[in-house]
Amino acid sequence: MEKSKVRKVRSDKKKDVKPFVSLPISECIHRISYITSRPVKDIAEELCVRGLYSKKAIELLSEQFKRDFNLNEYTIYIGDRTIENDRTNKIIGPKKRITIRFGQQFHSRLGELAFALDMTLASTTSLLLEYSIKDTELVNHLLRRFVASELDPKRMEQLKEVYRFIRKENPYEEEFTFSMFINFLFDELKCTTESFAKQVGEWLDLKSSR
């Protein structure tokens, strides 16, 4: 009798997680996706990965830990068994479902976070996305890296000069972050944009020629 072949599963095969997120969070992720010309699922994955290793994001999440969570070999958060969390993340208002694909190793790490929160994996991902996208340093880093990779050094320096000027002359009390600046450019240029980076380059060339 011929033996049936056992199909091997790749150890690095990615797994889907499909969390619901609030409409503003979804729109923000789609905006970053548009600006960077990267798929929504890739942006969402990077935000989650960076968020899980961001002390700022985990500090906020730790307030809801029912069980202990090891952030790294030096930091452990002690859970509070008296905390009563819903198994699912309750979202007030309109929401949308997005699909994210995680590698096996990160998927397991996400499972540890879900265990600490005593929540489903999808709801844990939803919460992590929410805290990650509100971390201005994290989003700034993501957008800075994209702009730096797409613009030549001269244009990048010009962009920084424009940003420094606006930040210095900002009459408002609230902080004007780099991500806010990029979003401002997005709003100004998107109506005629083929490629955001190309349009920014043309905008900078126009400013320097005046």
UniProtKB/TrEMBL annotation:
Domain of life: Bacteria
Species lineage: Bacteria, Bacillati, Bacillota, Bacilli, Bacillales
Designated name of the protein: Uncharacterized protein
Organism expressing this protein natively: Pontibacillus yanchengensis
